[in-house]
Amino acid sequence: MQRFFVFVAFSLVTGVFGQSGAFKKIPLAEVKNLQGKTVSSVEMVQNGDAPVILSFWATWCKPCVTELNAIKEVYEQWQEETGVKLVAVSIDDPRNAARVKPFVHGQMWEYEIYIDENSDLRRAMNVNNIPHTFLLSGSGEVLWQHTGYIPGDEDKLYQLVLEVAKGESIK
């Protein structure tokens, strides 16, 4: 019984600290852009001193599409105010990867879109459920992460982006 409580306490502590995650950088993995060119994950998230939003999504994930469309409405303003860059990584498997490019064009997303067909980056970042959104420093340091989406989550994300853009630490 005591082991059970220790396990639960450890799980709660790691779960809470897992939300901020400022202790690690993005792992090295390869993804493909919509033109089929292979790009390293580290190169993909470089953004100088400005923050980066890294969103894992899939064409079949309705909450993912809803989140990315909600951000689309305010993304230009976010970029002007903070310099933020949004990188959306599709986890569609090789059978569905051909659907990603026309899907993105249909949504009229202006984000950088990549495909993680083999789930290398997804596994390296411990992404189990989508949408899974990370906030990174411009150098790829993981500052915050969140799984799932409910309307209004983009407002919380924007507040965090503002803090990072101002050089403040995330609360």
UniProtKB/TrEMBL annotation:
A molecular-function term among this protein's GO annotations: isomerase activity
Protein name: Thiol-disulfide isomerase/thioredoxin
Chain ranges of the Thioredoxin domain: 20-166
Listed SUPFAM superfamilies: Thioredoxin-like
Ligase recorded as keyword: no
Pfam families xrefs: AhpC-TSA
Listed Gene3D superfamilies: Glutaredoxin
Record's keyword annotation contains Transit peptide: no
Keywords: Isomerase
Organism: Schleiferia thermophila
